[in-house]
Amino acid sequence: MSQKASNSPLMANRDDFINPNTSSPVTVSDADSFLLDSSQIGSASGSFQNEGFLSGADGGAAAAADAEFGFSRPDFRQTQLVGTVDFYERHVFLCYKNPQVWPPRIEAAEFDRLPRLLAAALTARKNDVKKQTRLTICEGHDGTETSNGDVLIFPDMIRYRRLTHFDVDTFVEEVLVKDGEWLPGNPEALTGWYIFVCCHGSRDRRCGVCGPAIVSRLLEEIESNGLQGKVSVSPCSHIGGHKFAGNVIIYGRNTHKEVSGHWYGYVTPDDVPQLLEQHVAKGEIVDWLWRGQMGLSEDEQKASQQHRLSIYGGTDVDRGTINSNDVGIRTCGSQLEGMGCCQANGNVSCCQTTQPPVDADNFNLNQENAEFTTEKKSSFKRQVSRSSSGKGTRSRKVCSMPTWYESWEREDTYAVLAVVGAAISVAYAFNCYRQLK
C-alpha cells in the first residue's frame, strides 16, 4: 500500500472495521435477487449468455457490445430512476459460484441445488416471514472470505458460514421466520461498507456489459484510496431493473448506527469516484443516480427525494431522464444534498464547496474520520469530472462565484444593525458616565 493511501483519514482506526470478533467486508460476491413473491421469481425479460464479460473480446466486439448494451446504448438514461425499487425490509445474500456460470434463473436451476432450495423454502414460508425479504445470490469462492454457502443479511449486518442444502429449512425457520439465530452457525457481525453491482449477463446483456466495468473501477478506487477491508465490492445477479444498468446497491451504517440500503441506476465507471466520495465518505445521496432505498415504498422514495430537494434548493431535478450528453447543463440553482451546482450534475469542475446536509440519510465510514483529506478529495474531483459515457462528452457549466452583495441575507443586515446599535449604546453610556464625574 502506498504512503499516500496509508495517510488517508479513512485508514485511521482500522480496528474499528476489522477485528477478530467481526467479519470484514466481502471481497466479491454474486447475486440473483427476487422478493418473496412467486410472481417475481424468474421474471427476466430475456435470456442471454455472459457475453458482457469482454475481457477476451477484441476492441471491435467490445465497442459493438457497448453501443448496443453498454453505456452508449440508445435507452441509456432515458427513464426516470426515483421510485423504481420495490418495497422490502431485509436483504439476504447467498454466496454461490460466480457470474460466468450463473444460468439466467439461478434460483430455479436444476443443478444449482442450494439457491434453488433456499428460494423454494422462502417462497413456501412467505406468509410466515414477518419482514418483506429479498434474496440475492452473491459470488462465493471456497477458501476465501466469501465461501460458497455463506449468507449475508442486511440490515442485520451479520454473516452465517457454510449453509448447505441439508440446513435450508432449519435456517429459514430459525433466522428468517423466528428472527432468531441458526444454532449450527455462529453469526458474525459485519462491519464496513458493502457495494453490490448487478453483473448477471446471462439474465440480461445490459447488466453483463455494464456491471463488470463498474466492479473493475470500484476495485481500482478502493485500492488507490486505501479502502481495502473497509469498502467491499461484489458482483451480483439480477436485482430488478435491467434497463437501469449499471445497477448498484450500497449498504452501511449511518452516524446513528442504523443500516440502510441505497440503490443507484445508470451508473457508469466514471460515476464511481462520486459515489465513493459523496455517499460513502460524506453521507450525501447522489440524487441524480438514486433509484430508492430499502424500507421505503415507491411513493415514499419519490417523496423522500422531493423533501431533500426542497430543503437543499433543488428544483425539478429529474436526473433519471438526463442523457449523458446533457449532464452538466442544469442551472446553478439546482443543488442536491449539500453539493454545489455542478456536483449535482455529476461535474465538480467549478463549484463552490458547501457543507454536507444536516439530516440526510447519512452514511459515514467513521464519524470521526468520515471525510477524505484535501488531497484525496481533489483526486476524486478530477476523476468525477471525466465523461460518464460513450454517448458524448459531459458538458461543464462554469458557475460564477457570488459576490458579497449577492450572498448578503436579511440575517446579515440584522447582525450589522445589532452591532452598530450596541456600539452607539456603549458610546452613549460612556459619555453619560463622564458627565456625571
Automatic annotation (TrEMBL):
<dbReference type="Pfam" id="PF06999">
    <property type="entry name" value="Suc_Fer-like"/>
</dbReference>
<dbReference type="InterPro" id="IPR036249">
    <property type="entry name" value="Thioredoxin-like_sf"/>
</dbReference>
<protein>
    <recommendedName>
        <fullName>Sucrase</fullName>
    </recommendedName>
</protein>
<feature type="region of interest" description="Disordered">
    <location>
        <begin position="376"/>
        <end position="396"/>
    </location>
</feature>
<dbReference type="InterPro" id="IPR009737">
    <property type="entry name" value="Aim32/Apd1-like"/>
</dbReference>
<feature type="region of interest" description="Disordered">
    <location>
        <begin position="1"/>
        <end position="23"/>
    </location>
</feature>
<feature type="compositionally biased region" description="Polar residues">
    <location>
        <begin position="1"/>
        <end position="10"/>
    </location>
</feature>
